[in-house]
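Subgroup meeting minutes
Present: P.N., E.W., G.H.
Scribe: E.W.

1. P.N. recapped why we're keeping a running log of single-chain structure predictions: easier to compare across weeks, and new members can see raw inputs and outputs side by side.
2. G.H. added today's entry (240 aa).
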Amino acid sequence: MSVPTPDPDLQLPEPERAPRPRRLLRAGVGASLIAALSSLFLFGWIAEEVRHGETASFDFAVRNWVHQFASAAMTRIMTAISAFGYKILIIELVVALAVFLYLRWRRAAAWLAVTMAGAQALDMALKYAFHRERPPVFFGTEPGSYSFPSGHALSSFCFYGVMAGLIAARVRSPALRIAAWALAALLVIAIGVSRVYLGMHYPSDVIGGYLAAAVWVSAMLVLDRWRVNRRKLAMQANSK
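Output recorded in log:
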């Protein structure tokens, strides 16, 4: 008696597997590598501009323009948004890792943990490498760390970007995928704006944080897709 073949449209994707045609894998690795190199080039350029003070006019112009919208209500909103780049983000990270481990999504948990650990190490290393002093804060208490790059921008880009990618890989609905990426992008941009509004960072700090995060995430994508491709090739060789 023949066993009926299940309808592929009714199958939920296996979250811990990433089968892809070899051509798509190669294209993905190439795109990630290009993104990593482009982000690295742009980060190097803006870092050099920051080191020589070439971003001063841009930084002060943007800070003053943003500050003109200051109000008590806006300050409360921006303070709350800024928390999603550090304090609330830490809680979200712990919850996400716990949920992934409960669901036995070990690959997703490892991906998120390594990405965020690397983001923190990268942030600390770059801050001590550039020793850029903080700008005069508009609201709140001045942090004790250096200014370039923005740790909130770097960490939020890594966390919400990775979460959007993990969610998009596990849902079939295009609308949900678009919503996940759109929400992540909106939140990351809002966090960066909040840091400039509060006066915690120069705009170039935020841009530098985004670019550093893009380098790191793109590099992680290259390594992950290379690993998946190697595993797929090994499985094909064993099946022959």
